[in-house]
Structures are given as C-alpha cells and as structure tokens.
Automatic annotation (TrEMBL):
Keywords attached to this entry: Endonuclease, Hydrolase, Nuclease
Species the sequence originates in: Chryseolinea lacunae
UniProt key word Transferase: no
InterPro entries, A to Z: Nuclease_put_TT1808, Restrct_endonuc-II-like, Uma2
PANTHER family: SLL0198 PROTEIN-RELATED, SLL1222 PROTEIN
Taxonomy of the source species: Bacteria, Pseudomonadati, Bacteroidota, Cytophagia, Cytophagales
Protein name as it appears in the record: Uma2 family endonuclease
Length: 190
C-alpha cells in the first residue's frame, strides 16, 4: 500500500487517505487515524449478504440503491468510513458519486465484529446520528441482536431492539418485509 505524505502530528485527512492505493484490506479514516481491520468473519459476511439481498430487492422496487461494502462514505475531512451496507432512497441519490458516498444516505448498517465493536457502538453511532442518518442499524451476529437508532431516539437508546425473533420495521423503508430470524438463514457453520 502506498502512503501519502502527511504531517502525522496533525493526523490524516480525507485528501491524504484518498491518495492511498486501492486495497482489499478493510481500511477507514476515523478521527484522523487510519484503521485497518482483518477480513470479516464468515458469520459476518453471511448475515451481511442476507440483509443485502433484501435491501437490494427494496432498492429495485423503489428506485433507490443498496450498496455493499467496501464503499467509502466521506463524512468530513477527518472521517471516511466503510459501513457494511448503505441504503439510499431514490430522492437522495445525489448522495452518491464516483468517489463513493459523499452525501448523507438514509440507512447505514454495521455488522459487528470483535475488532470494531467499540467503534461501531460509540464513535460511529454518534457520528452517523449527528450528521442526520435517518436510521443506523447495528447487527451483532454472535449474540443475534439488532438495534435500530434514529436521530429521534438518540445514541443512548435504540428505537427498536430485536433479539432472536420479530418483524423488522423501518421508518424509512415502510414496505420492507423482513423477519429478524431471516438474517441468519444458512449461517450455521460446522
């Protein structure tokens, strides 16, 4: 990976980050620091794929876009995140550009993995809600928990919290039909 020239005493900027070579290693700019992670666990990918299948059908039905990681989400000059899934409604497609997501999408989903759980549940959650994401979903595939946060519910208490079963309802995807347990179809690993 090529690194750009930067003054590390001041941290990385989005401009420095964008000078890096393309990589398959998950890499984000978080609060001016480059964070690299190992590849996601198989369970993470299976759950993510199941949810993407449903969101993609919803996107085709409504004219929106469902986007699967890796994709850069440009928050500001010190933060470029790579959420696991993003959904942008038709009326907000201007949030997308050739560089990735440069505006505010409607839904962001993070599937927790042990190395990134603290960041997803704290810094990213606060950042997403502060910039006006309509819904932020955190899926814990190991504990089988889904929490849905909105700007109205705030970062301390999820609007919805599902454990093991139940119908997932979304304030922005009103026709979404998804049972929580469907996130875990074909995820048993021997």
């Amino acid at each position: 990976m090529k690194t750009s020239q930067t003054n590390h005493t001041k941290g990385w900027t989005a401009d420095n980050f964008l000078l890096l070579e393309e990589t398959n290693t998950p890499c984000e700019l978080i609060n001016g620091e480059i964070i690299m992670s190992p590849s996601p666990l198989l369970l993470h990918q299976l759950v993510s794929g199941n949810l993407y299948d449903v969101l993609k059908i919803e996107a085709r039905r409504t004219g929106g876009r469902a986007i699967y990681s890796p994709i850069d989400f440009h928050i500001d000059n010190r933060n470029v995140f790579q959420p696991d899934l993003i959904f942008v409604r038709k009326e907000n497609l201007h949030a997308l550009s050739l560089r990735g997501v440069t505006g505010v999408p409607d839904l962001v989903v993070e599937i927790m993995s042990p190395p990134n759980a603290h960041i997803d549940k704290n810094f990213k959650k606060k950042t997403y809600l502060d910039i006006g994401i309509s819904e932020y979903w955190i899926v814990d595939p190991v504990r089988r928990v889904l929490e849905i946060f909105t700007p109205q519910s705030g970062p301390a208490q999820p609007k919805f919290r599902l454990v093991e079963r139940g119908e997932i309802s979304s304030t922005i995807l009103s026709h979404l039909k998804l049972r929580f347990e469907d996130l875990f179809i074909d995820t048993e690993i021997e």
